[in-house]
Every structure is written in C-alpha cells, then in structure tokens.
Amino acid sequence: xxxxxxxxxxxxxxxxxxxxxxxxxxxxxxxxxxxxxxxxxxxxxxxxxxxxxxxxxxxxxxxxxxxxxxxxxxxxxxxxxxxxxxxxxxxxxxxxxxxxxxxxxxxxxxxxxx
Length: 114
Fold this sequence. Notes:
Helices cover 15% and strands 47% of the residues. By secondary structure, the protein is mainly beta. The protein has 2 domains: 21-58, no CATH class; 60-114, no CATH class. It has a 5-stranded antiparallel β-sheet with strand order 4-5-6-7-8, with no helix packed on it. Strands 1-2-3 form a 3-stranded antiparallel β-sheet, with no helix packed on it.
C-alpha cells in the first residue's frame, strides 16, 4: 500500500512539472556584431498567470557556402531553422527531412531560400 501511494504521488508530481508555462513576448531586441550584422536576439517574455519575466537570448549560427563566404545566419527552431540575412530579415528556412537521414545521416536538412 505504501509503495502504491508513493507511485501515485510521484506521478502527480511529474504531471505538475509537465504543464507548459504560458509566456508571451513583451519585446525583442536584435544583437549586432562589430560589422553591424545581426547575429542574434534577446526576447523579454512574461508569464500571463504569475507575471514572471524571463529573458531569452538566442545567438544565430553562421551559414556559409562552399567557398566559406557568409550567406546568412541561422536560428534553430523545433522543426528545423530560419535563415536570416545580414540585416535580420528572414530569407529562407531549413527543414529536417527524416526520410533522407537513412541514406545521409550527417545531413542537416534542406534549405529553401526565398
């Protein structure tokens, strides 16, 4: 009986931790390097329920072509990534296609530029 009570309490504790926080974006500020290129951003997030404020910092990965020239900057997201130009405007996306992972496991996905 005691083990069952402990298991139920542990399950309830895990369920409470699994609830997602409800954050909304209050402001977003871009980071620029010494050359004036956008290399990341900082978001100020606020929890609607508790009023808690959180700072989220995201630095972009450099995206280069075969010659080593910087093509853009990549913000990683859950389903792939968003590609930005030097001024911080979105110019493309990268999607991760799991079907091609079997034949090319080191592939980071297909980039669609627009």
